[in-house]
Amino acid sequence: MTDNDEATTAKLDVLLILAHPDDESFGFWGLMAWAQSRRLRIGLVCATRGEAGEISHPSLGAPVVLGAVRERELRGAMTIVGVDPVRLLPYRDSGMRGTPGNDDPRSLAQADREAVLADLVFQIRDLRPHAVITFGPDGVYGHPDHVRIGEIATEAVKVAASSADSFLGGPWQTSRLYHMAVAREDLIEMSRRESGPFADTPPEVIATMGIPRWEITHVFDVREFIDTKLRVLASHATQLPYQPEDSGIGDPAMRPRLGRESLKRIQLPWPEDRETADVLDAFNTLPDPA
Length: 290
Hints:
Elements: H1 3-7, E1 12-18, H2 23-37, E2 42-48, H3 66-80, E3 86-91, H4 113-127, E4 129-134, H5 139-142, H6 144-160, E5 176-180, H7 184-191, H8 203-206, E6 218-221, H9 226-234, H10 244-247, H11 255-258, E7 260-266
Parallel strand pairs: 1-2, 1-4, 2-3, 4-5
Antiparallel strand pairs: 5-7, 6-7
Helix pairs in contact: 2-9, 3-9, 4-6
C-alpha cells in the first residue's frame, strides 16, 4: 500500500464523539456489541472524564479522583465490546445546566471553540472513520456538554473534509454522520412515571428534550445483545445505584426498553460513498428515507 492509498483508506467503520464516560454505554451499548460481532472497527473520542458526575458510594472514589475513576470505568467498558482506540480530550465536565461547573474555566462549556474544533478535526483526520456518531442539538436531555460537543463535532466532520483550513492532517471525507436520537414521546412517557428519571422535570422542559419520533431514521434491534449491554453498563459503577437491585437494569420489565437504539442521519454536503455507506444501514430496521 502506498502512502497515498493509506491516506484514502478508512481506519474505522464508526467513530463516536461524545462528552462523558458512560454516554456511549447508555446510548450505543447494543450497537457496539453488534459491531463487535461483525468485526467492525469502532473508536471513541470522549471530551471529558466526567468529573462532575455522581459517586454512588464512597467506597468507589472521592470527588477529587472521580475523573480518573471514570476513565478507568470507561476503558473497562469499552474492552468488553472491543472499542479501540479510546481517546480522551483535556476538557472538564461542565456539570448539569445551571450548576457552578458551567462557569469553570477548565470546563468544556468554557473552552475556546476553535480549540475544541481543532481537536476534533485532528481526531477525524487521524482516525478516518466511515461514519461519525455524536449528539444532536437537543443533547438528548439538554446537558450543556452534550449540546456543545455535538454541535462542534458536526461542524468538525465538514471542516475535516476541506483542505481550506490551517488544522493538522490532510482532508478526510466521512461518508455518514448520525446524531444520537431518543424519541421525545418516550421521554414524555418516562416523565409521567413516579419512579422515572424525569419524574421531577417540568413539562415545558420535557417538551424540548429528544426529537420527534418521525425524525428518527435508524432503529436498531439489539435484544440479542442485552446481556452484553448490562455488563457494559455495570462497568460504570460510580454512575449506578450502589445496590444492584436498585438500578433497575436487571429487571425483566426493563429488557424491552433496552432492546432498541436509534439514530438520526444528518445529510452531508457531498455525495456519499455508496460502497461504505451501508455500515449501519445493514442493521437498521427502518427503511432509509434517502
